[in-house]
């Protein structure tokens, strides 16, 4: 396999015998992730041969990203493919793997790749006992189910977990999809996934709530107002961590925070618990970082108490 150039890093596949050959690729679960990954593998020279999907939306995604690839049942995918992408919801994955193994669908030497952030390679043990080769390759990316996902995977980090003897092959597949492999130990998968959910999923909620509040304040284009601000805040946070903390909590402006609490309680009570939790977490981090003094933190905690009024 001629993997794309990967500058530096221990994940660079060095020996030709460690690199997967051109493979027939199948997708079980044509959600937002599977077809995009299969399309990336096709660009690297692999050959999508089958996809399974039940809903009309799944079939449309498969047709858009994998045109001409036949839609069959999961057993049919495994019968045709050398590399199988198991891209189903987390709660469905263990039962699916057991079912495929119990029915003899898994062939010795067949690569089985799941994309769950929660699970490592252990969830594929039933398939491994049947001779399958288990890989956990989780892209740290949000997916739309459209061709734009293929472009976004360029440079995307993947959380990789696999048996040691398959590590180089797993990392090589990630590189072929345009991604950057990041090794995650089996025991660390739940913590790794919690971190991504905290940063990405909760960010969407925060941004949506902020836009709702701006609309309520009379702002006609909250997305345009927030875009530059949030872009700068994200860039600063990624570069500088806690040193990037700004705003009334980091400054210790208890009066301003109390006004926020009162206003949210009166006009948007559903957003208040999130504001209080994040303000307290921000105060804790600012205090540890040294940008907030202890006496300021005490006044902030009073402002964030049940009555929302500073002492």
TrEMBL record:
Domain DUF2520: 156-282
Occurrences of domain Putative oxidoreductase/dehydrogenase Rossmann-like (ranges): 16-139
Protein name as catalogued: Predicted oxidoreductase, contains short-chain dehydrogenase (SDR) and DUF2520 domains
Species this protein is from: Streptomyces aidingensis
Source domain of life: Bacteria
InterPro entries from the UniProt entry: 6-PGluconate_DH-like_C_sf, DUF2520, NAD(P)-bd_dom_sf, OxRdtase/DH_put_Rossmann_dom, TM1727-like_C_sf
């Amino acid at each position: 396999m001629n993997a794309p150039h990967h500058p530096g890093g221990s994940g660079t596949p060095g020996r030709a015998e460690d690199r997967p050959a051109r493979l027939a690729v199948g997708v079980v679960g044509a959600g937002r992730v599977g077809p995009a990954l299969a399309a990336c593998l096709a660009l690297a020279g692999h050959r999508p041969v089958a996809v399974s999907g039940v809903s009309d939306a799944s079939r449309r995604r498969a047709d858009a990203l994998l045109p001409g690839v036949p839609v069959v049942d999961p057993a049919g995918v495994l019968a045709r493919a050398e590399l199988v992408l198991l891209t189903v919801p987390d709660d469905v994955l263990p039962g699916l793997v057991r079912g495929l193994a119990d029915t003899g669908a898994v062939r010795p030497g067949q690569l089985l790749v799941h994309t769950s952030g929660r699970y490592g390679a252990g969830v594929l043990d039933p398939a491994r006992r049947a001779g399958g080769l288990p890989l956990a390759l989780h892209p740290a990316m949000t997916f739309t189910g459209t061709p734009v996902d293929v472009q976004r995977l360029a440079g995307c980090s993947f959380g990789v977990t696999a048996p040691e003897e398959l590590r180089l092959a797993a990392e090589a597949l990630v590189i072929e999809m345009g991604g950057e492999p990041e090794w995650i130990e089996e025991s660390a998968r739940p913590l790794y996934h919690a971190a991504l959910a905290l940063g990405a999923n909760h960010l969407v909620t925060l941004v949506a709530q902020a836009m709702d509040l701006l609309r309520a304040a009379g702002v006609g284009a909250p997305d345009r107002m927030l875009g530059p601000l949030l872009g700068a805040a994200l860039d600063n946070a990624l570069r500088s961590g806690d040193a990037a903390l700004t705003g009334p909590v980091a400054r210790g402006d208890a009066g301003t925070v109390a006004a926020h609490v009162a206003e949210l309680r009166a006009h948007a009570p559903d957003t208040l618990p999130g504001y209080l939790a994040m303000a307290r977490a921000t105060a804790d981090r600012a205090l540890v970082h040294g940008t907030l003094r202890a006496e300021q933190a005490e006044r902030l905690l009073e402002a964030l108490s049940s009555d929302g009024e500073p002492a």
